[in-house]
Write a structure and sequence with these properties.
5 helices; 5 strands; MethylDNA_cys_MeTrfase_DNA-bd; three-stranded mixed sheet; alpha+beta; 135 residues; methyltransferase; Arc Repressor Mutant, subunit A; EC 2.1.1.63; transferase
């Protein structure tokens, strides 16, 4: 995991229901009625371990749980447990802020959703350059 440039400011509240047993996970459905796959659960479980003030890359996550950086991004894009599963703490291997909620920053700029990701990380003490790269 990459370290923030200054200490963590605050953690997001852990108020979202998150099934932790096999039985509860088998019964869980997203708001659209879909099941969460075993790979998605693995991604969410690992992502929950990234503390405020730190980030991991999509590659870090896939090395920990299997799959590819793209499959990790796909799981996080549909994360039904945010902010309890802090998908905003996962960035690109180039240390670019990367995507958020299905939107990917273009040409070193961020879009509306990526700006929200940047705000969340700044609140936690993680700083980025004007071009969107981790400082």
């Amino acid at each position: 995991m990459k370290h923030a440039t200054r200490p963590s400011a605050s953690a997001l509240p852990d108020t979202t229901y998150y099934p932790t047993t096999s039985a509860l996970r088998a019964q869980f459905r997203t708001q659209t009625g879909k099941r969460v796959t075993p790979h998605q659960w693995a991604v969410y479980d690992f992502t929950r371990t990234i503390p405020p003030g730190k980030v991991a890359t999509y590659k870090d996550v896939c090395q920990a749980v299997g799959g590819s950086p793209r499959s990790v991004g796909g799981a996080l894009r549909t994360n039904p447990f945010a902010p309890f599963v802090p998908c905003h703490r996962v960035i690109a291997s180039s240390l670019f802020i990367g995507g958020f909620l299905g939107e990917w920053g273009k040409e070193h700029r961020t879009g509306t959703q990526c700006n929200r990701k940047l705000e969340l990380l700044l609140t936690e003490g993680v700083a980025f350059t004007a071009e969107g790269y981790l400082q």
